[in-house]
């Protein structure tokens, strides 16, 4: 099938590459010329395990191309994915201006034939109909320019909501091994096209677990599909805030949240995923999606109290590492704190709304010097959004002269650092383990005083 994916970020690029891998003829469009140039040269603009290799083989097979020319993309695609960003506005609402620009551009470039326009961006509930309206507006404006005002366009299209559930860091794996595929539309024809598109994934042809039953498809209406995405992320964020609340109580009563999480996680109604206590959730999705749902509820005169509490717990949790540093170091002014990890989770280069950013800001405010080492950020030279922190190129340089270390991101490589060597380079060897990730005994044997979160 001929596919066009518009927006080549974490979602768009992975979607485009994986659809090419399963046999479709894909063109990925981005309005960032630099990015397009980079991708055309075979390089991925984002860090995502497995993506560059797959991208290279799909380009070589001739099934994947990149361009900044939206009209060429619209002409090429039978299915047009909108996968641009929907960042949060200061009010908590989603900023849908990029989706709007793309929808208008699609409308202006529709010529003839039938197209399925797919919202893969996470968009506020009701956006499916809104996108339809904007596409028609775009088409109408183009007709006007051509002196054909009022003449209907020859092209036909339907809108589908197909929310994305991939996780940064395992995005390729998640695309080939989805838990479910959600398709929302009022058009039977569009839903049939989408099912055909995803058929190789549904039958697990590219899965790591080909013998599992087919991937469930949830066929629903536009608004329910949009709501499924918000509800899923809000549930997961709330689950983390829940275990963090339990961890804070554990800290006070002397219980161990890791054992508590194990004990409750074995209950099949609860499950053991997303029960790791720590310094809270962040990234480009949870914070903005929970805020957007709260905002939508507000628009309909409903106060989403549980979601608001999940956000409040998370905001407090982000600076819990500071409280712990104050407990061990007392005054932070004039002290040097080293952060192990910067990204909001391991195996990504994404710093959007990472807890590290709040911690750096707060430590700076309190007069501490902040250094950091992150396996990807330190190497790639990517420093966007980072101020008030010295980024070191290796963990031992990070430890040198520090009064305490704080583990921010649970990168696997942090299990095997030479902690004994690092402890010797520090003024005082305190480790605040913000993810309860390291082994207390190992750290203590290396000379550290270890402090966990509720552990
Ligand atoms: N990142 C995730 O893990 C994730 C997971 C699920 C859903 N989502 C949702 O998917 C959407 C995309 O997220 P992302 O993280 O990939 O965003 P991103 O910011 O990484 O990428 C967006 C891309 O769109 C491009 N773009 C913007 N305007 C454009 C235009 N007019 N024409 C062409 N390209 C344009 C940008 O240059 C950028 O490359 C968001 O709505 C997000 O909420 C993200």
Automatic annotation (TrEMBL):
Signal peptide: none
SMART domains referenced in this protein's UniProt entry, alphabetically: UDPG_MGDP_dh_C
Residues bound to substrate: 165-168, 229, 274-278, 282, 345
Catalytic reaction equation(s): UDP-alpha-D-glucose + 2 NAD(+) + H2O = UDP-alpha-D-glucuronate + 2 NADH + 3 H(+)
Protein name: UDP-glucose 6-dehydrogenase
Keyword Methyltransferase: no
Pathway: Nucleotide-sugar biosynthesis; UDP-alpha-D-glucuronate biosynthesis; UDP-alpha-D-glucuronate from UDP-alpha-D-glucose: step 1/1
GO molecular function: NAD binding; UDP-glucose 6-dehydrogenase activity
EC number: 1.1.1.22
């Amino acid at each position: 099938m001929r596919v066009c994916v518009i927006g080549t970020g974490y979602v768009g690029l992975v979607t485009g590459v994986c659809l090419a891998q399963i046999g479709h003829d894909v063109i990925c469009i981005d309005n960032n010329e630099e990015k397009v140039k980079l991708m055309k040269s075979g390089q991925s603009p984002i860090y995502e395990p497995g993506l560059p290799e797959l991208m290279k083989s799909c380009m070589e097979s001739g099934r994947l191309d990149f361009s900044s020319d939206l009209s060429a993309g619209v002409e090429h695609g039978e299915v047009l994915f909108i996968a641009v960003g929907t960042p949060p506005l200061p009010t908590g609402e989603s900023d849908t201006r990029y989706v709007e620009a793309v929808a208008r551009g699609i409308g202006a470039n529709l010529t003839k034939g039938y197209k399925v326009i797919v919202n893969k961006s996470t968009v506020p509930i009701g956006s499916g109909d809104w996108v339809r309206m904007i596409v028609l507006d775009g088409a109408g404006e183009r007709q006007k320019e051509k002196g054909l005002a009022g003449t209907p366009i020859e092209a036909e299209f339907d809108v589908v909501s197909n929310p994305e559930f991939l996780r940064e860091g395992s995005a390729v794996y998640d695309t080939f091994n989805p838990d479910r595929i959600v398709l929302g539309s009022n058009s039977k024809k569009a839903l049939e096209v989408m099912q055909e598109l995803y058929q190789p994934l549904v039958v697990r042809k590219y899965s790591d677990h080909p013998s599992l039953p087919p991937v469930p498809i949830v066929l629903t209406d536009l608004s329910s599909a949009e709501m499924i995405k918000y509800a899923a992320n809000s549930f997961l964020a709330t689950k983390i805030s829940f275990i963090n609340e339990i961890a804070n109580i554990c800290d006070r009563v002397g219980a161990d949240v890791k054992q508590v999480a194990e004990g409750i996680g074995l209950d099949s109604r609860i499950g053991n995923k997303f029960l790791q206590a720590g310094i809270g959730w962040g990234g480009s999705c949870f914070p903005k999606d929970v805020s957007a749902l709260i905002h939508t509820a507000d628009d309909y005169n409903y106060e989403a109290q549980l979601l608001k509490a999940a956000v409040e717990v998370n905001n407090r949790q982000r600076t819990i590492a500071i409280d712990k540093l104050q407990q061990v170091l007392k005054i932070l002014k004039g002290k040097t704190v080293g952060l192990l990890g910067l990204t909001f989770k391991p195996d990504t280069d994404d710093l959007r709304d990472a807890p590290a950013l709040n911690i750096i800001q707060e430590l700076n405010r309190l007069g501490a010097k902040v250094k950091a080492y992150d396996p990807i950020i330190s190497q790639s030279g990517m420093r966007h959004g980072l101020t008030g922190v010295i980024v070191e190129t290796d963990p031992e340089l990070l430890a040198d002269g520090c009064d305490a270390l704080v583990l921010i991101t649970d990168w696997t490589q942090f299990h095997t650092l030479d902690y004994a060597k690092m402890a010797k380079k520090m003024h005082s060897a305190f480790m605040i383990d913000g993810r309860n990730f390291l082994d207390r005994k190992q750290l203590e044997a290396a000379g550290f005083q270890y402090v966990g979160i509720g552990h």
